[in-house]
Each structure stands twice: as structure tokens, then as C-alpha cells.
């Protein structure tokens, strides 16, 4: 399965054999069963991971309510950005919604690869740019739009989520209660 990560990185920047060898040595493949945590609030996020199969949900607690902040699926990079880069415990929980397999690279090993391989710096920069691009689209569409427009954004751009994500999680992601989401879905 590491070959999928190497192929993806190679689409960003051609990697020298030495970097590929280092990745094969350092990247770990890990399986998470449905409903298991990749990261819990209060922990330091030590790994950047790439989802090979499956689906995850990130959320935080507001009082006792779970507020979903993102869904990530095959091909996505996942970590708690704040915690990973600050090296401090974060508030984010990351849980597998489906059985999920990820390729994981530890923070310290990533820093070593950045120092050792200029090509890996390029890969890291491009992945970060893609993340920021998607974050800005998400912030605009989910924070500036009306409820029905937010739902239509999901229908248009991420229709697979409607089949894979429980409605209670989708509702909190869209910033509404389950009844409002059901009413909007009923209008279709």
C-alpha cells in the first residue's frame, strides 16, 4: 500500500530513489476499525497520514455536543494541523467512520526528510497549498452561506458523502440541527 503514497508523491514531484527508499522505511501502514480514534482531544498529533481506504471525521466538543469540522476520505492528508505543527495537545478528535487504512509519517521523520531531500520539501509545500485551498473553499461555503446552499454545495461537490456519512454528523458539519437538515433534504 505504500506504493499508492509513493505514486501520489511522484505526481507532485519526481522523487529520487534515495527518497523513495527512505519513505519505504519510515512510512507505516495502519488499519483503524470503524469508530476507532486516530487522535483524541488532549493528545499531540504526532503523525501526518494519507488515507488509503476509508473515511474519517474530525470534530471537537462544544459543551457536550460534537461539532464536526471535516470529513476526509481516500487520497486525503489528515492530521490535527494545530497540534502537529505546534507540537502541543489539540482539541480535535479524529475518528474512523468506516474501516480505514492510512499511511503514517511521524513528525520527526518528516522533518528529517525535509532536511535531507529537497524534493520532499516541494511535496510538503504542494500538499500544504492544496490543504489551504480546500480550507478556504470550505470556510466560505460552510460559514457564509445559508443552510440550503451549504447542503447543495455538498450535493454538487461531494455527493459520495451523502451515502457514507450519518446524517447527524453531516448536520453538525453544516452548522444545523438534524431536523433542519431533514427539512432541506425533503425539499429535493
Produce a short descriptive summary:
The protein has nine helices and eight strands.
Describe the structure in your own words.
The protein is of the alpha+beta class and 188 residues long. It has a domain of 112 residues: Jelly Rolls. 51% of the residues lie in helices and 24% in strands. It has 9 helices and 8 strands. Strands 1-8-3-6 form a 4-stranded antiparallel beta sheet. Helix 4 crosses helix 5 and helix 8 packs across helix 9. The radius of gyration is 18 Å and the shape is elongated. The chain starts with a helix and ends with a helix. The mean pLDDT is 92.
What structural class results from the helix and strand content? Answer: alpha+beta
Helix content: 40-55%
Strand order of the largest sheet: 1-8-3-6
In DSSP terms (H or I, runs of 4 or more residues), the helix count works out at 9
N-end to C-end Cα span: 40 Å
Strand content is 15-25%
The H/E string reads: HHEEEEEEHEEHHHHHH
Which runs of at least 5 residues are low in confidence (pLDDT < 50)? none
CATH topology of the domain at 2-113: Jelly Rolls
Would you identify the CATH architecture of the domain at 2-113?
Answer: Sandwich
Oligomer category: single chain
CATH class of the domain at 2-113: Mainly Beta
Radius of gyration, taken over Cα atoms and rounded to an integer in Å: 18 Å
What's the mean pLDDT score?
Answer: 92
Looking at this protein, list some descriptive labels.
188 residues; alpha+beta; Jelly Rolls; elongated
Amino acid at each position: 500500500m505504500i506504493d499508492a503514497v509513493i505514486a501520489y508523491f511522484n505526481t507532485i514531484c519526481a522523487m529520487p530513489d534515495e527518497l523513495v527508499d527512505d519513505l519505504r522505511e519510515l512510512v507505516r501502514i495502519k488499519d483503524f476499525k470503524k469508530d476507532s480514534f486516530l487522535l483524541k482531544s488532549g493528545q499531540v498529533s504526532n503523525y501526518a497520514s494519507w488515507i488509503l481506504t476509508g473515511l474519517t471525521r474530525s470534530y471537537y466538543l462544544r459543551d457536550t455536543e460534537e461539532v464536526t469540522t471535516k470529513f476526509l476520505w481516500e487520497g486525503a492528508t489528515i492530521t490535527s494541523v494545530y497540534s502537529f505543527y505546534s507540537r502541543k495537545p489539540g482539541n480535535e478528535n479524529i475518528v474512523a467512520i468506516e474501516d480505514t487504512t492510512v499511511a503514517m509519517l511521524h513528525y520527526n521523520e518528516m522533518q528529517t526528510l525535509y532536511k535531507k531531500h529537497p524534493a520532499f520539501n516541494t511535496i510538503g509545500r504542494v500538499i500544504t497549498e492544496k490543504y489551504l485551498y480546500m480550507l478556504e473553499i470550505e470556510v466560505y461555503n460552510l460559514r457564509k452561506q445559508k443552510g440550503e446552499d451549504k447542503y447543495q454545495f455538498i450535493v454538487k461537490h461531494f455527493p459520495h458523502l451523502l451515502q457514507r456519512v450519518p446524517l447527524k454528523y453531516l448536520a453538525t458539519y453544516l452548522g444545523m440541527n438534524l431536523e433542519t437538515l431533514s427539512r432541506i433534504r425533503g425539499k429535493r
